[in-house]
Amino acid sequence: MSRFAIFGAAGFVGSRLVSRLEAEGHVVQGITRANWPTPGADLGHVIFTIGMTADFREKPFETVDAQVQKLYAALHDYTYQSFLYLSSTRVYRQQADTLEGAALALNPNNPDDLYNATKIAGESLCLTLKNPAIRVARLSNLFGVPAPSQSFLAAVLDEARRTGRVTFRTAPDAEKDYLDVESAVSALIAIAQSGRERLYNVASGRNVSNGMLAETLASLGIACHFEPHAPAMRFSPLSVERLAREFGHAPQSVLEALPALLAASPED
């Protein structure tokens, strides 16, 4: 039995971590805005899940605060057995190389890169500190029940449930990686407790296109339509060799999960 502290315990990933760890018999401290620990506290294994989602463009100051300043406070103000910072595979946007050691590119003139810049700043802070127990996990696009708020797949499923049809605003060959949240939680706990490396991709390693999603939804009775001239946003397949080699990794396919995801209500 170990002690864990989960920063962002009320969020999609944080709440799942708290539930799983408690079910496994660990001592868990769920940390939210309302109950940050007293500086100097020993927190055991820390998993830092605080971050912005799709609203980072409208909330730039809050994005920097969540993904850099609060991370700084958590790293600086406490002691811990290990510390795991949750970053994002979004940092590989428009890159062919998705190995963990790949050099990353940013364009400060692009407002979309604010998210990546703050995530990379957080990663750099963690990895600069000379403590091998401070690690980074780059998370893919997660799915599960209940669905994460403001995700592309959640919006597609919500439209399908409400109307029986879906209009895709990106092209059929647009593709990305999707990872089920239970596999993500398993990987994060394993990395926090015994990771041999300092940086991991936590993803499925398989891209799924909009066309594949539409075909599966159509088999479930959902009428699917693509807007003419919709943009094709393609992400390079994510490398998960490091994660699989160290821990084993057999995540559920999002296509296999679609029937259950579609049948679930948003409140489940």
Write the layout of secondary structure elements.
Blueprint: E1 3-7, H1 12-23, E2 27-31, E3 45-48, H2 60-77, E4 82-88, H3 113-128, E5 134-139, E6 141-143, H4 152-163, E7 165-168, E8 175-180, H5 181-194, E9 199-202, E10 207-209, H6 210-219, E11 223-226, H7 241-247, H8 254-263
Helix pairs in contact: 1-5, 2-3
Model description:
- The chain folds into two domains: 3-141 and 180-202, Rossmann fold; 142-176 and 206-236 and 251-263, UDP-galactose 4-epimerase, domain 1 (Alpha-Beta Complex).
- Helix content is 37%, strand content 19%.
- The chain contains eight helices and eleven strands.
- It is globular, with a radius of gyration of 19 Å.
Main-sheet strand order equals 2-1-3-4-5-9
The CATH H-level homologous superfamily of the largest domain: NAD(P)-binding Rossmann-like Domain
What's the total helix number? 8
What is the structural class?
Answer: alpha/beta
* SSE ordering: EHEEHEHEEHEEHEEHEHH
- What is the CATH architecture descriptor of the largest domain? 3-Layer(aba) Sandwich
Give the strand content.
Answer: 15-25%
Largest sheet: 6 strands, parallel
Work out the helicity level. Answer: 25-40%
Instruction: Using the coordinates shown, work out and report the CATH topology of the largest domain.
Output: Rossmann fold
List keywords for this structure.
268 residues, alpha/beta, Rossmann fold, UDP-galactose 4-epimerase, domain 1, 2 domains, six-stranded parallel β-sheet, three-stranded mixed β-sheet, 11 strands, globular
Short characterization:
The chain has two domains: 3-141 and 180-202, NAD(P)-binding Rossmann-like Domain (Rossmann fold, 3-Layer(aba) Sandwich), CATH 3.40.50.720; 142-176 and 206-236 and 251-263, UDP-galactose 4-epimerase, domain 1 (Alpha-Beta Complex).
